[in-house]
Amino acid sequence: GQQLNQSPQSMFIQEGEDVSMNCTSSSIFNTWLWYKQDPGEGPVLLIALYKAGELTSNGRLTAQFGITRKDSFLNISASIPSDVGIYFCAGRPSNTGKLIFGQGTTLQVKP
Amino acid sequence: DTAVSQTPKYLVTQMGNDKSIKCEQNLGHDTMYWYKQDSKKFLKIMFSYNNKELIINETVPNRFSPKSPDKAHLNLHINSLELGDSAVYFCASSQDGSADTQYFGPGTRLTVL
User: Considering only alpha carbons, which residue of chain B is nearest residue A29?
Assistant: First the structure.
């Protein structure tokens, strides 16, 4: 089946540093989404992207829909301890109504 | 008010038992989903219902049977539980079947002994 490759798998950074993670697909996606999952909770939507080239911000978070429609990245600026969690990219392929999720990026922030 | 709620939060049971997980959403959405998250945190869709009608049915064993009594509820019944069924199961909902903004419940951690 279709898969998303999300990297890096995990990150351990210092508070205040910027973070970047990305997702790539072998096929074209119509939509890219970024979710965050805190321990013991369900994923929460951070940013949704609907057009190739679209760049969207949500506070310290910025995400972009790649021009080729096969990738997306998420940046977090000036990380803080509460940014800790697992970040998932998700995409909707053009030929299906279901979301495909990446493997997740586990972020740890050292105060 | 909780938008998407699931019960129970934790479920520990023996192999071979039958169990159910309930999900309710108060968002007025038409579409609901069940996802399975394995020990490596990989999220995979299992089922999707739109207004009580099954629209997505991934390759899931027949032991798993979703039931939607109305569009605000989607329950998951699992027969003859196996060790490999141990995972966290998430319910989610969206405005309609083409909507990408899915709201997730808090998850049900199922442990099969």
Answer: B100
Query: Which of left, alpha, beta for B111 (phi over 0: left; psi -120 to 50: alpha)?
Result: beta
Taking CB atoms and an 8 Å cut-off, how many pairs form between chains A and B?
Answer: 51
- Residue A97: is its pLDDT beyond 80? no
pLDDT in tens, A39-58: 889 999 999 999 999 999 99
B41 touches A104 (CB < 8 A): yes
Q: Does residue A93 have a cis bond before it (omega within 30 degrees)?
A: no
Residue B55's φ and ψ, nearest 5 degrees, are: -120, -25
Whether the CB-CB separation of B60 and B47 falls below 8 Å is answered with yes
Question: Mean pLDDT of all residues in chain B?
Answer: 92
